[in-house]
Design a protein that fits this description.
Distance between the termini of chain A: 35 Å
CATH architecture of chain B: 2-Layer Sandwich
Structural class of chain A: alpha/beta
Number of strands of chain A: 5
Shape of chain A: globular
Number of helices of chain B: 3
Helix content of chain B: 25-40%
CATH topology of chain B: Heat Shock Protein 90
CATH topology of chain A: Transcription Regulator spoIIAA
Number of domains of chain A: 1
CATH class of chain A: Alpha Beta
Strand order of the largest sheet of chain B: 1-2-3-5-4
CATH superfamily of chain A: STAS domain
Strand content of chain B: 25-35%
Largest sheet of chain A: 5 strands, mixed
Helix content of chain A: 40-55%
CATH superfamily of chain B: Histidine kinase-like ATPase, C-terminal domain
Oligomer: heterodimer
Number of domains of chain B: 1
Order of helices and strands of chain B: EHHEEHEE
CATH class of chain B: Alpha Beta
Distance between the termini of chain B: 18 Å
CATH architecture of chain A: 2-Layer Sandwich
Radius of gyration of chain A: 13 Å
Structural class of chain B: alpha+beta
Largest sheet of chain B: 5 strands, antiparallel
Radius of gyration of chain B: 15 Å
């Protein structure tokens, strides 16, 4: 299954619902383009909802890191929401789980922005 | 699956997906559990990415050789590229604080996390990667043989 992204706005926060695979190639490029497009339009409060992401490889992990640092460098904030077990485990073994702001509750994640 | 099987693949992104699919199918057919199948397929995917991108650099003249061999004790996967080889000393530790936020460099680390043995043999004519997953519990011999 290829990757699909759907963007919606909730109380000034942009939520990107992701589904499928974030892997080298199309999936990573879509993620990169989407986040850069959001930032260029001034949307700097971003939540990546990964609840339907069933697979991610090292390139996908790199893309999440890139999204996080790019957003932060532009004065924004990016959170991850609803990690699947596979993604959760990968972020744990790569020691990135504590780097990202990971949330389980969408409403709380939206309220948590500064 | 036969005792061993080998594929010669182009240096394309499609090869990465095909390698992963073959690994998933073979590991499943050999009776590995769901988590182990995911680990094996991801390790093969990472190995194939390295062969296609970093080894052969997408060259249409260079091939990736992917082979699977199973014994009662192990599933042995070998991925060879025809690139210039890699300098293992130059591979940074992705868990070091200064590398945590780098956007690449986690492939070999993930392979080592998921497989029991990872051997990398670089040379000027290519790199050979060997990934080994030990059989735990029932012997590997195909679904038909499991109870």
């Amino acid at each position: 299954m290829s990757m699909k992204l759907n963007t919606r706005q909730v109380d000034g926060v942009t939520i990107v619902d992701c589904s499928g695979r974030i892997t080298l190639g199309e999936g990573s490029v879509m993620m990169r383009d989407t986040v850069r497009d959001l930032l260029s339009k001034g949307n700097k409060k971003i939540i990546l909802n990964l609840g339907e992401v069933n697979y991610i490889d090292s390139s996908g992990i790199g893309e999440l890191v890139s999204a996080f640092t790019t957003t932060k460098n532009q004065g924004g904030e990016l959170k991850l929401l609803h990690l699947t077990k596979k993604v959760h485990d990968l972020l744990q073994i790569t020691k990135l789980y504590t780097v990202f702001d990971v949330k389980d509750d969408e409403a709380a994640a939206v309220k948590g922005f500064k | 699956m036969e005792q061993s099987v080998s594929y010669t693949l182009d240096s394309t992104l499609e090869t990465v997906d095909h390698a992963e699919e073959k690994a998933t199918r073979i590991a499943t057919d050999l009776g590995f559990g769901e988590d182990e199948v995911m680990q094996i397929s991801m390790a093969v995917r990472e190995g194939a990415v390295n062969a296609v991108l970093h080894g052969n650099a997408y060259s249409p003249d260079k091939k990736v050789i992917l082979s699977f061999e199973h014994t009662p004790e192990d599933l042995v996967i070998t991925i060879r590229d025809q690139g210039k080889g890699i300098d293992l000393a130059q591979i940074p530790n992705p868990l070091a604080p200064e590398n945590l936020l780098k956007t690449s460099g986690r492939g070999i680390f993930l392979m080592r996390s998921f497989m029991d043995v990872v051997e990398i043999r670089p040379s000027h004519t290519g790199t050979e990667l060997k990934l080994i997953k030990h059989v735990h519990g029932q012997s590997v011999g195909g679904k038909e043989g499991s109870q």
